[in-house]
Amino acid sequence: MKRSAYAHLELDAASPATLILSVAVADPDANDTLHIEQSGRLLAAEMVLDQHGTRLHVVDVGAGAVTVDYSVEHDGALPAPDQRGVDQFRYLRPSRYCESDTLGPTARREFQGLSGSDLLAGVSSWVGQELSYVPGSSQPTDGAVQTLLARQGVCRDYAHLVVALLRALDVPARLASVYAPGLDPMDFHAVAEAYIDDDWQVVDATTLAPRGSLMRIATGRDASDTAFLSTRGGAVSLRTLEVGAVADVLPDDDITRLVRLA
Global pTM? Predict the structure, then answer.
């Protein structure tokens, strides 16, 4: 499958700051480009790899407007993160946005007797039915508990709730940010991954894009590990965000089928 994606960000820095960008696909050999420009000058970014191969680009900027342009073309599968044993324990723990300890009673009541692929399909369907996808309905600080109470959210909220419910049932689960060909409305996308049958399988309760077309950007406990932009130092505001992703063929999707993020 041939896939391509791009991201365009326009930022305003109120004072000198350090930007930490997570917009590049998780493949150091990818056919991609990243341009960061300020006042007509290209800025050099340092690439830092995290424990899952997420490529973070760190750049210092001065006060003023900053433009970020990223593009990638990829033919074939992206490399999967190392499946080290510690991940099976790390991703069972509650985290900032995935309060699995609080949601334990809900998870046990709703999914009693389910396991394996049936459990993933059950959680995906339940979250998809319980929540309404409403752009702008959630706050950046909302976690899975608040999402369930509000009964609405966007992709990261769906993914956080899926992750929290699965962890509550002793299934290791984590969050991945992705480019998503076929997504509507187009944006950066977030999905859950669950460890069953000795592999990480994608769960996307929004069903807004086929799981087989997704391109991994970042992997972590929740959105605190996978944000497309973090800053250090001065205040930075986002003025414009444009994201696009296409594939030559969009595969069919069936939530009862196990799919790896490739």
Answer: 0.95
